[in-house]
Design a protein that fits this description.
about 140 residues; alpha+beta; D-amino Acid Aminotransferase, Chain A, domain 1; five-stranded mixed beta sheet; two-stranded antiparallel sheet
Length: about 140
């Protein structure tokens, strides 16, 4: 947590993703399509900091509050254990890549290592200029 001031809403630092070159399969990991945007998996709910809860519990709570037909916020489903198959589908559809997350992980680095990794599609055709587009809006 970045702010412990009782008069301010606490903020939560973004969890850094480590990049690896190849997808993998493992039953203890979940895999999601990589989207640029904010991640709301470590929110404060009724004064409770959820960042210490396991990822699957945080996702369950998030799913219960995000409307299915919301226009600006959406819930990203995951695939358990099948990173290679999801990555193949993402590459086939010319998407950026996937994120692998240890299912039991809290929202924090453990011994400076992130429990999340990203695997980028090396043939993604829409990456040129994306960084500038997001930096321009800040």
């Amino acid at each position: 947590m970045d702010s412990e001031d009782p008069d301010m809403t606490p903020s939560i630092s973004a969890l850094e993703l480590q990049q690896i070159d190849a997808p993998f399969d493992h039953p203890d990991w979940i895999f999601e399509i990589k989207f640029d945007g904010f991640r709301s998996l470590a929110a404060i709910e009724n004064g409770e900091d959820l960042s210490d809860l396991p990822l699957l519990e945080r996702k369950k709570r998030l799913r219960s509050i995000v409307r299915k037909n919301a226009s600006r916020v959406f819930y990203v489903d995951d695939v358990v254990g099948l990173g290679k198959a999801l990555f193949a589908e993402v590459c086939k559809r010319d998407m950026e890549g996937i994120v692998a997350k240890l299912a039991i992980s809290p929202y924090k680095a453990v011994r400076r290592a992130s429990p999340w990794t990203k695997i980028k599609n090396p043939n993604y055709t829409q990456k040129e200029g994306r960084g500038e587009m997001f930096n321009r809006r800040r």
